[in-house]
Design a protein that fits this description.
nine-stranded mixed beta sheet, Anth_synth_I_N, Chorismate_C
C-alpha cells in the first residue's frame, strides 16, 4: 500500500514527508500546500490555448514588457543559490479538460514516464456533487528520488547525472536537495499546488522511523520489488481553475543556473512556450472513448487471487486478538492484495473510477515500476502555511440535509461506542504523530 504526496518548492512547506507512520495507516492521500495568494481575475491576462497569445501590436509589446518586469522584480527578491521564479500564461480552458491535458503531455502508449493528474469532487447536500476548484497535471520531472530500503538513487535529468547513496533515512533527501531554495511567491498564481515534489511513500517507510522496532530485515517477503519511495520534482505544471474556466501553464526558472537574469528570463519563456505548444489546439490528441463499464474479462490463465487464503487471513485475525489481549499492540491493520488480469489500461480504470466513485482526492500517478490509481475520501496529512493537519474519518458521519437530521446524526454517532472509541484512538494517535514534528504543545484538536 502506498501514500500519495505532493509538496510545493518551499522547504518550510515540505509535505512530501508523510505523517509519522502511525497515521500513515489511515489511508492514501495527497497533501497539497498552497503556492501564492489569489487575486481578482481582473488583473490577469488570459488567452486562447495557443503557444502565442493573440495580442496585436503595441498591446503585445506592453504585455511582454509587463511579464518581463514582473519576472525581474521577483528575481531581485531572491539572491544566491536556489532563487526560483515562475513564468506562466493563463489560457482559456473551454476546450481543454485535465484528462485531455494529461494526454497532451503523456501519449497513450507511454505508461512509463513519471507524471501525475490530481482532481477533486466532493459530495454536496441532497446528493449533489461539487467539483473541486483546482485540478493539477504534470509530467517529465527534472529530478527523481527513488529509495529501496537504504539505497537511494537520485536522477538529475537537467544535468544527465545519476547518483547512488546508502542512507539511514532516505526521506531526508528531498529536504536536503531543497535546502537554501527561495521560491518567490506570486500574487497572481492560484492557491493551489503549482510545482514541487509529487510521488508516493510505501507503508514500509515506517521502517526508516522505527529502525530498531521494525527493521527492514524483519519485513515480509517483497514479491514486487517496488521502490519504498518515489518522488519526482516537477517544474512544469498545469493548474486548472474549474470555477473560472482557466488554465495556468506554469514553468519554474532556477535563476542562479543562468549567467544573468535576462538569460534566465529568455530561457524560461522558451521552455514555457514549448509547454504551451503541447496543449495548442492543433496538437491536442483525440481522446479515446472512455467506458464506465470496462471490459474486464480475463485473458490467458485465470487470475483472480489474493496474497492470503481465507484460512490464513482468519489465522492472522486470531493472532492479532492474542497480541491485543497480551498488551503487545493496540492497533493493527490487516491487509491483503488482490490481483486480476484485464484488458483495461490503468488510465481507463482511472477514467471510469472518477465517474463511479468521485472523491475529494482522486489521483493518477505514473512512477518507477508502477502506476497508482486512487480515489480517496480523506487526506493522510496536510501541511499548509506552517500548520500540519491530520483529519481521520473513522468515527465521523455525513452531515444532515436539515438541522433536525443533523442533530439526529450527531446523537446516533455519540451513542455508538465502537465509533466513539475508534475516533478517540485515531485522534490520540494523530496528536501523538503530529506532536513529533510540530512545536511542543502548539497543537489542538477540533
Amino acid at each position: 500500500m502506498e501514500s500519495l504526496a505532493a509538496a510545493t518548492f518551499s522547504p518550510s512547506r515540505l509535505a512530501a514527508h508523510p505523517a509519522p507512520p502511525a497515521a500513515a495507516a489511515a489511508g492514501r492521500s495527497r497533501a497539497v500546500a498552497a503556492r501564492g495568494r489569489r487575486r481578482s481575475s481582473s488583473g490577469l491576462r488570459c488567452s486562447s490555448a495557443s503557444a502565442t497569445p493573440v495580442i496585436n501590436g503595441s498591446a503585445a509589446a506592453k504585455a511582454e514588457e509587463e511579464d518581463r518586469r514582473r519576472f525581474f522584480e521577483a528575481a531581485a527578491r531572491g539572491t544566491g543559490k536556489g532563487n526560483l521564479v515562475p513564468v506562466w500564461e493563463c489560457i482559456v480552458s473551454d476546450h481543454l479538460t485535465p484528462v485531455l491535458a494529461y494526454r497532451c503531455l503523456v501519449p497513450e502508449d507511454d505508461m512509463d514516464t513519471p507524471s501525475f493528474l490530481f482532481e477533486s469532487v466532493e459530495q454536496g447536500l441532497e446528493g449533489t456533487t461539487n467539483v473541486g476548484r483546482y485540478s493539477m497535471v504534470g509530467a517529465h520531472p527534472v529530478m527523481e528520488v527513488v529509495a529501496k530500503e537504504n539505497k537511494v538513487t537520485i536522477m538529475d535529468h537537467e544535468k544527465a547525472e545519476v547518483t547512488e547513496k546508502i542512507m539511514d533515512d532516505p526521506m531526508q533527501v528531498p529536504r536536503s536537495i531543497m535546502e537554501g531554495w527561495h521560491p518567490q511567491e506570486i500574487d497572481q498564481l492560484p492557491e493551489a499546488f503549482s510545482g514541487g515534489w509529487v510521488g508516493f511513500f510505501s507503508y514500509d517507510t515506517v521502517r526508516y522511523v522505527e529502525k530498531k522496532k521494525i527493521p527492514f530485515s524483519g519485513a515480509p517477503h517483497d514479491d514486487r520489488n517496488l521502490p519504498d519511495v518515489h518522488l519526482g520534482l516537477y517544474d512544469d505544471v498545469l493548474v486548472f481553475d474549474n470555477v473560472e474556466k482557466k488554465v495556468y501553464v506554469i514553468h519554474w526558472v532556477s535563476v542562479d543556473r543562468h549567467a544573468s537574469t535576462e538569460e534566465a528570463y529568455k530561457d524560461g519563456r522558451s521552455r514555457l512556450k514549448r509547454l504551451l505548444s503541447k496543449v495548442h489546439n492543433a496538437n491536442v490528441p483525440k481522446l479515446s472513448p472512455g467506458f464506465v463499464k470496462l471490459h474486464t474479462r480475463q485473458f490467458g490463465t485465470p487470475l483472480n487471487k489474493s496474497t492470503m487464503t481465507s484460512d490464513e487471513y482468519k489465522g492472522a485475525v486470531m493472532q492479532a486478538k492474542e497480541h491485543i489481549l497480551a498488551g503487545n499492540i493496540f492497533q493493527i491493520v490487516l491487509s491483503q492484495r488482490f490481483e486480476r488480469r484485464t484488458y483495461a489500461t490503468p488510465f481507463e480504470v482511472y477514467r471510469a473510477l472518477r465517474i463511479v466513485n468521485p472523491s475529494p482526492y482522486m489521483a493518477y500517478v505514473q512512477a518507477r515500476g508502477c502506476i497508482l490509481v486512487a480515489s480517496s475520501p480523506e487526506i493522510l496529512t496536510k501541511v499548509e502555511k506552517g500548520k500540519v493537519i491530520n483529519r481521520p474519518l473513522a468515527g465521523t458521519t455525513r452531515r444532515g440535509k436539515t438541522e433536525h437530521e443533523d442533530k439526529l446524526q450527531e446523537e446516533q454517532l455519540l451513542s455508538d461506542q465502537k465509533q466513539c472509541a475508534e475516533h478517540i484512538m485515531l485522534v490520540d494517535l494523530g496528536r501523538n504523530d503530529v506532536g513529533k514534528v510540530c512545536i511542543p504543545f502548539v497543537y489542538s484538536t477540533f
